[in-house]
Every structure is written in structure tokens, then in C-alpha cells.
Recover the amino acids of this structure.
């Protein structure tokens, strides 16, 4: 019997706010332990939390990015559990009335489009961080109270590679929307994996195994590559899998049992008595809907459709929002946007990387790059000369036509001048000339290169080729 995996993901994303969820303490990474804390963070008796308005806004914006329904009533609940990193012995989260629900995310996978349904994206607070040393342990509460979104997917994923593609698409979406920087090294994205196996062709889910301790998306893929065969092998042996939580040991490359999986009733959820329900107004929701950016996949599809770009070029421009914006401004209405894309992706990106600068540092507008391409396509300068002009343009910001005029770089198309150079090249290279006459067509390219060298790149390549061929065949 053949088996398949069924995977759902719970992704915890740190929101891009200046302060924490319930107080004015800084939402900042890298501060000395227990310095960004206050009585609210530490769960002191008698304190009253106040919700972060920006966190509420980013939650609803995420809902729109994920095609979710935005309920007009949401509430906060206390999830009760005892652990050293939870100063309050409960976590404020959303249980049965979340701020967003029932959405989906489309993403590219294996040459097609996959869709994962989003159960909910609910708002909650982070807890502290346990630090373990040689002889003792400590808790840093700087992270306690930082606003998180828990994005829960339906079990719509069926392989480790597909789960990896989903996570990359999700974080790309969140970064594009300004929801989070999604820096995994700073703990801004954490992921729990729920996976089960079942006979292919059936619809009943098997026992759900949760895997924790995911430090990277590649770790998620490696954990699934281990766990899926482990479960299939166990089922084939007749073992009965039970719902449990396992941890991923990245060094050993295995999952290990941590505990039996808790159910919702184990956490004794109850509405938080210190926090009012969240009842957003229609006008407020409409103001957020109005600023929803274009989704990455939609942009890639539009670049292919409207600018006739190949998928590879569209992918590069989709992945870099600023570079994509620069391209669109330069190519708007231009007859050959592919040529501009080549300069943006290869020339401009290379210069930015080589000089350690960003698009914000550019000294020239998008229109100058368009002007450079127009000079090439009109035959006024060669591609080789265009490289020289572009270097000058990048450094000075001067218009390409002005650079060409100032440096005398205009392409020579005068047949008389080119004929004279061709005669000199043929006389100086009798061997290649004889090779061409003997039928070696490639020799013409060498001779044409010599013409371009002698003319310092100014000769029109097409005219030079035609002239050489005519003289050699005459």
C-alpha cells in the first residue's frame, strides 16, 4: 500500500512595531537581558494592558494579504500553562474569535500554482526566552509581550518541498506588506509543523504529530524528510501512531518525542477580563483595505503579461520590490521592455552590488536608463559603447545623450569610413581573411572584432559585417 503525507503549518511571525503588544516597552532585538521590561511585561499583580493599535492594524492588513475574512468582533483569551518563560503563567492570545479567518495563499510550486487554505491569522503575545548555561539557567523577558501573528494553515501540503515553498512565499508576502522583517536569525519567524500519513486515495487524516524547534525553513524541510518516512515505516509495521509533540534535533537529523500533544481543553482558555473585545469600524477596515499592496505572485504574472517578460526576469523583479518599481518606470510604454529589464537585472544590479549602494543612492532617474536603451536600439551607439556610457551615467547621473556627445562616442555608420577600416583589417590579417574565403564562416567574427577594436567600438557592427563580407567575397 502506498502512503502520502498531509502537512499543516503554524507560523509565528513577529510584527513590525516599535513597542510591545500591551505596553510602551521597546520591541527591539539585541538589548541586554531584562532591560526592555516593565510591570506589564513581567505580569505584576494589578497591571492593566493596553492594546497596541499598530499591531491591530498590521493584523487586519495581513488578513487582506491572505484573502481572509475580517470579523467585526474579535476577543483576547488567556491560554493557561506553567513554564519558566511565561511570567504570568498564561499567554494572551485569540482562541474562538480571532481577528482574521478563512483565507488562502496561492504560490508557485513545481511549475504550477498551489493553494493553501489559511484557517486563521490570530494575534497574540510572545513569551520570554530561556537561556541555558553550564551550571544554571536564566530567563530573558525582553521578548515577553512582543506582538506575534500565528498563521495557521489547513493540512493542504503534501511534501517537504511544497512546505518549504509555502513558507518562502508566506514570508515574501509579509515582508512586501510591511508586516514583519521575517529575520529568522532574530527569532522573528518560528514554525511548528503538524504532519500525519494516510493511505493514498483516502481522505481521513492520521494521527497528528507536531514537530517543534524549527530554526530555519531548511530545517522544516529536513525534519519532514525524516519524519514522513519514519511514520510510513511505523504504519507499515502495524504500529499505531498517537498524537504527540516531537522536537527536531538538527545536528542528529532526527525527531524525538517530547510529550503527548495537548488539546485545547488542556489550556483552559478563558476570555481575558482585562481586555475589551476588538470591534473594528467599517471605515477603519476600509482605510486598511485601501493600502493593501499588490501581492508578489500577482506582480510576477502582471510583469509577464503586460511587459512580455520571461518568467525568470519577472521572478527577479518580483523578488526585489524597489528594482521592480524602477524597471516599471523605465519601461512604461517602451516598445522593448525586455531590453530595459536586461539592463536593470544585469547592469544596474551589478553596479549596485559592486559599489555597495542602493537604489535610493542612484544619481539618475529611470528615464535615463530608457534613454540609454533607445540610443542602442536606434543605432547611435553600440552595445559595447553603451557599457561605457552606463558606467559614466551611474557615476555622474548625466543624461546618456549628453555623455555620448561630450565624449564623442556616437556610432560610426558612414560606409566610407568603415570601408577604410575594413581594408586595414583585411590587410593586417591575411590568414583569417583566407580562412573566410575558404569557407570558414567563423573567421568573419574575428575580423569584425578587429574592426570594432580599431574603431574603438564606434563602428556599426552590422555595417562592418556587411562591408567585410562584401570585400572578402569580391
Amino acid at each position: 500500500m502506498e502512503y502520502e503525507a498531509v502537512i499543516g503549518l503554524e507560523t509565528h511571525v513577529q510584527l513590525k512595531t516599535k513597542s510591545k503588544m500591551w505596553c510602551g516597552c521597546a520591541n527591539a532585538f539585541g538589548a541586554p537581558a531584562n532591560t526592555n521590561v516593565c510591570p506589564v511585561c513581567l505580569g505584576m499583580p494589578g497591571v492593566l494592558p493596553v492594546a497596541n493599535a499598530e499591531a491591530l492594524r498590521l493584523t487586519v492588513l495581513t488578513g487582506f494579504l491572505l484573502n481572509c475574512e475580517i470579523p467585526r468582533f474579535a476577543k483576547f483569551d488567556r491560554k493557561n500553562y506553567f513554564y519558566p518563560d511565561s511570567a504570568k503563567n498564561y499567554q494572551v492570545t485569540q482562541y474562538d474569535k480571532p481577528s482574521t479567518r478563512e483565507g488562502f495563499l496561492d504560490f508557485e510550486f513545481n511549475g504550477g500554482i498551489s493553494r493553501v487554505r489559511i484557517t486563521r491569522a490570530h494575534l497574540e503575545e510572545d513569551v520570554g526566552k530561556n537561556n541555558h548555561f553550564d551550571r544554571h539557567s536564566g530567563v530573558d523577558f525582553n521578548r515577553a509581550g512582543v506582538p506575534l501573528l500565528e498563521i495557521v494553515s489547513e493540512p493542504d501540503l503534501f511534501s517537504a518541498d511544497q512546505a518549504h515553498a509555502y513558507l518562502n512565499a508566506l514570508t515574501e508576502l509579509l515582508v512586501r506588506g510591511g508586516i514583519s522583517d521575517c529575520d529568522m536569525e532574530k527569532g522573528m519567524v518560528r514554525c511548528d509543523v503538524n504532519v500525519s500519513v494516510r493511505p493514498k486515495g483516502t481522505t481521513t487524516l492520521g494521527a497528528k504529530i507536531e514537530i517543534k524547534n524549527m530554526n530555519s525553513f531548511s530545517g522544516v524541510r529536513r525534519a519532514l524528510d525524516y519524519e514522513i518516512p519514519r511514520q510510513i515505516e511505523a504504519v507499515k509495521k502495524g504500529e499505531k501512531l498517537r498524537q504527540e509533540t516531537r522536537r527536531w534535533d538538527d545536528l542528529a537529523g532526527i525527531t524525538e518525542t517530547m510529550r503527548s500533544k495537548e488539546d485545547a481543553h488542556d489550556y483552559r482558555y478563558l476570555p481575558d477580563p482585562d481586555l475589551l473585545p476588538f470591534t473594528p469600524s467599517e471605515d477603519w477596515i476600509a482605510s486598511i483595505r485601501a493600502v493593501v499592496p499588490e501581492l508578489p505572485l500577482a506582480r510576477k504574472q502582471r510583469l509577464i503579461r503586460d511587459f512580455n517578460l520571461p518568467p525568470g526576469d519577472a521572478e527577479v523583479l518580483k523578488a526585489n520590490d524597489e528594482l521592480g518599481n524602477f524597471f516599471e518606470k523605465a519601461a512604461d510604454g517602451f516598445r522593448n521592455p525586455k531590453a530595459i529589464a536586461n539592463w536593470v537585472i544585469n547592469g544596474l544590479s551589478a553596479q549596485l552590488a559592486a559599489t555597495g549602494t542602493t537604489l535610493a543612492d542612484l544619481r539618475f532617474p529611470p528615464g535615463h536608463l530608457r534613454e540609454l536603451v533607445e540610443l542602442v536600439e536606434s543605432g547611435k551607439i553600440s552595445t559595447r559603447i553603451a557599457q561605457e556610457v552606463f558606467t559614466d551615467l551611474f557615476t555622474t547621473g548625466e543624461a546618456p545623450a549628453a555623455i555620448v556627445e561630450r565624449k564623442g562616442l556616437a556610432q560610426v555608420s558612414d560606409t566610407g569610413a568603415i570601408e577604410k577600416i575594413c581594408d586595414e583589417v583585411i590587410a593586417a590579417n591575411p590568414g583569417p581573411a583566407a580562412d573566410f574565403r575558404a569557407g570558414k564562416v567563423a573567421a568573419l567574427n574575428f575580423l569584425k572584432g578587429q574592426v570594432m577594436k580599431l574603431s574603438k567600438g564606434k563602428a556599426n557592427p552590422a555595417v562592418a559585417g556587411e562591408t567585410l563580407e562584401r570585400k572578402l567575397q569580391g
About this structure: The chain has a mean pLDDT of 91.
